[in-house]
Amino acid sequence: MHCYDCSQEGHNEATGIGCCTRCGLFTCADHSLIMRSPVQRPIGVIPMTSALPARRLVCGACRTAEAA
Ligand SMILES: [Zn+2]
Ligand SMILES: [Zn+2]
Beta-carbon neighbour count of residue 16 at 10 Å? Predict the structure, then answer.
């Protein structure tokens, strides 16, 4: 799978590393951001945040939208 953003820019040789968790498009390392996100686990009725963050991949466009 090739990176969607690279193909939009006219060069599609970059291999995608994964798909954005928001838009689902495949993007390469240059066009992806690995975000750490806390995991909520309910312990009984109390929501607990895991000591270790999970990770998720977002593409540049979705990251820009999230930060806007
Ligand atoms: Zn790319
Ligand atoms: Zn995206």
Answer: 22
Residues within 5 Å of ion ligand 2, judged at the Cβ atom: 20, 22-23, 59, 62
pLDDT at 19: 96
Closest listed ligand to the CA of 33 = 2
Residue 67: what residue type?
A
Residue-level pLDDT at 57: 96
Q: Which residue has the higher pLDDT, 12 or 68?
A: 68
Q: How far is the CA of 12 from the centre of ligand 2 (A)?
A: 17
Q: Where are the beta strands (DSSP E) in the chain?
A: 18-19, 26-27, 32-37, 40-43, 46-49, 54-59
pLDDT, mean of residues 1-26: 92
